Amino acid sequence: MSITSTVQCLIQTGNKQAIINALDLAKSEKIDLDWTPQQNIFRWLESYKKVKPSQDLAEQLTQLYSIRQLDLSDQQLTETPKEIGALHNLMVLNLSNNQLKELPKEIGKLDNLSTLFLQGNQLTKLPNSIGQLNQLRWLNVWDNQLTEIPSSISKLTQLSYLSFAENQLTEIPESIANLSNLEYLHFFKNQLTEIPDFIKRFRKLKSLRLEYNQIQTLPSFIKNLRALTEISLAHNQLSTLPKEIGQLKVLKYLDFSNNKIPKLPTQLGELPNLLLLWINNNQLTQIPKTIEKLPNLEKLRIYENNLSEIQCHALQKAMPNCVIKS
């Protein structure tokens, strides 16, 4: 069995140390293993090359010029050496869960980078050079201290996943308006007050997560996002929902819990693929009859509203295959 085959088998077992040992034996063999960010990326990424914090990081980086995936997560790093910019073959870089406050401008030299994990740091800004990463498809900057996003991000037109969740942003900047390949847009737990009009351009968008903000309105242009399968606007200040939401025929997950919604549009009953609907903790006095006709609804949360026990019982009787929490 070749080293490549051995590594592939070991990855299935999850034995990280054995994988690392096998890779050490394979320095002279080019290993090319398939991976996608959405499918267990960390199983491969964490076991590929874990740099030891006890060694000099800058020195190690000079010896890794041909590496494709590099994991520097959970090492209490306070800075990233500028030598990182010499890793021109790097495709995946994990800097998550450290103590980084900024990134070196040299990170823009990673012209083959497709995936960048920066979550769980103390970043207050990103370098303008991040806009040079024109192969980047996955950017996670979740849980940092950003108050603004560099305008150069507009150049990352290959991005399909973008998360600036859990920062201190007051708006979704227009600099991302040209990112027409976005499929996942996550800005939850910020200080947003509105959903900008340019969002309607993201025709490939599948997941829109904006929970825990201060958004007051879900615009009617949401109807343009026909690829959406998930919308989360929980814990905002919504007082109404647009009837146009009924045009999103591939929606599977809707979370409008913990808002101020007194009435639901009847068009919610026109979502044939909806699996989960959370509308708990609002101001509802009734549930539209059309909800009872949702053919695939599996879970419905309606508690902490102004619904009577009789209404809840009748709804449960009308939807015997749906788990209803009232």
Task: Please tell me about this protein's structure.
There is one protein chain. The chain is mostly loops and 326 residues long. Among the domains are: 1-27, no CATH class; 49-191, Leucine-rich repeat, LRR (right-handed beta-alpha superhelix), CATH 3.80.10. Helices cover 14% and strands 11% of the residues. A 12-stranded parallel β-sheet has the order 1-2-3-4-5-6-7-8-9-10-11-12, with helices on one face. α5 (309-318) links the parallel β11 and β12 (323-325). α2 (16-25) crosses α3 (41-48). The model is unreliable at 1-48 (pLDDT under 50).
Q: Would you identify the regions where 5 or more consecutive residues have pLDDT less than 50? A: 1-48
Overall 3D geometry? Answer: elongated
Strand order, biggest sheet? 1-2-3-4-5-6-7-8-9-10-11-12
- Spell the H/E element sequence: HHHHEEEEEEEEEEEHE
Strand count: 12
CATH structural architecture of one domain:
Alpha-Beta Horseshoe
Query: Roughly how many Å apart are the termini?
Result: 57 Å
Structural class: little secondary structure
Q: Hey, roughly how much beta strand do the residues contain?
A: 5-15%
Biggest sheet details = 12 strands, parallel
Query: In which range does the helix fraction lie?
Result: 10-25%
Q: What is the CATH H-level superfamily of one domain? A: Ribonuclease Inhibitor
Text of the CATH class of one domain: Alpha Beta
CATH topology of one domain: Leucine-rich repeat, LRR (right-handed beta-alpha superhelix)
Spatial extent as radius of gyration: 23 Å
Mean pLDDT: 86
Given the structure, what is the number of helices? 5
